[in-house]
Amino acid sequence: MENNAFYVALSLLVNLDASLFQIVVLSLQVSLLAVLIAAVLGFPLGAAVALWRFPGRGGVIVVLNALMGLPPVVAGLMVYLLLSRAGPLGELGFLFTPGAMVIAQVVLVLPILAALSRQKVEEMLGEYREQFVSLGMSRGRMMPTLLWDARFALLTVLLAGFGRASAEVGAVMMVGGNIDGVTRVMTTAIVLETGKGNLPLALGLGIVLLTLVMLINAGAYWVGERTRRRAG
Amino acid sequence: MTSLNASLLASSAVMPPPALCFEGVAFSHEDKLLLGPCSFTLDGIGPTLVMGPNGAGKSLLLRLAHGLLSPTEGKIAWSGEGRPRQAMVFQQPVLLRRSAVANLIHALAVNNIPRRVRSKLALDALERFGLSACANKPARVLSGGQQQRLALARAWVLSPQVLFLDEPTSALDPAAIKAVEAAVREFHQRGTRIVMTTHDIHQARRLAGDVLFLSGGKVREHTPAEAFFNTPVSPEAQAFVAGELLE
Prior knowledge:
The complex is a heterodimer of chains A (about 230) and B (about 250).
Chain A: H1 5-14, H2 18-51, H3 57-67, H4 72-83, H5 98-134, H6 139-149, H7 151-167, H8 170-176, H9 186-195, H10 199-231
Chain B: H1 2-10, E1 20-29, E2 32-42, E3 48-51, H2 58-66, E4 73-78, E5 86-89, H3 100-110, H4 115-128, H5 144-157, E6 162-166, H6 174-189, E7 193-197, H7 201-207, E8 210-215, E9 218-224, H8 225-230, H9 235-241
Parallel strand pairs in B: 3-7, 3-8, 5-6, 6-7
Antiparallel strand pairs in B: 1-2, 1-4, 8-9
Helix pairs in contact in B: 3-4, 3-5, 4-5, 5-6
């Protein structure tokens, strides 16, 4: 029985294993905070690229789209170099802290949120443009209106970003270091347990991770559907 | 409409709406001349109905006048100081993905109307256009007629001096058309300059004070409604009024 991954996952959850609890909470804290920061920066950025015409706009769109596929280890390496003792931000002493993990995940999630919101906002702008100009709205004034009216599409975009953040292991491993009790998250713990040969525990952790992601997605879907029905 | 115009002219309370003047205005796209050059002045009491066959340039003329497009040649000018407050109602109403009342509040907000009076103005306008029951419904699930009335209510709260309407009833059933025409009359009575396109000659007969007749991107005729319907001058207008199918 104790070699069965589902049994392990269940007993981890039922016994409210303290170290597991810590790992789960840290995972959620890091990924949710990273998605929040990336949204605050990425949605206005995406909307701005959709709204304004400027030289090099096509290049910006291509770069944003390409960065959606940025390998997590590359993002991790960049943040590692930035935060390492000899790096430009080394004095902050951020490396191997949860803060560094948040930064790395922001780097990964930001292009997804910016590129996809740019696309959604641009579609909506095509429909609204004449009415907006008729109302005498400036581009800056159009931005909040468009972001709010695209809220249902942006919720899905947010989930895509959260999926990317919670699933990646390379970046948080490099800048966090998988330190027990400090920077260990679900994905790095799974890598560790697999390396140690403790496959049932690794799988059990995987099941817990999947369940959490499902719950968050189900919650977002439920909220989205409810508000969508009310707002049409 | 003649009796209405007479009463409007008699009432000194109504300020004449700002006059619109096209001076040699032309619009081309990719070297193709789509409209003009045309010169005319809308300084009567209106409403001005812009008529003509499909592709004559009616919508284009409205968009140029409203400032959604810039003419490639010529000049568009308004009487009085600066650009008058204006609004436009489109064939397909463009409504935000929010409740009916939130659509009006948004329009008021972008026009810097103080926050404390927004809801009252919005609810009053909804009541005026018979939409009170729909105030909190999502604007986009309303019927076509209700949506168009909401678009008119949105224009109403902005108290425009000029209102452009681009085929506002072409997708509506008779009851909804009646409601829209009643709304247009209300704007007219408030002293708003109405410039409206339609291809429905019966509608034009019901509403028009003067008619601007376009065909092939040129203004063929600009005359009082009575003269246009009874004694059209240009051969195109004669054919149009006689009900012939114009190319």
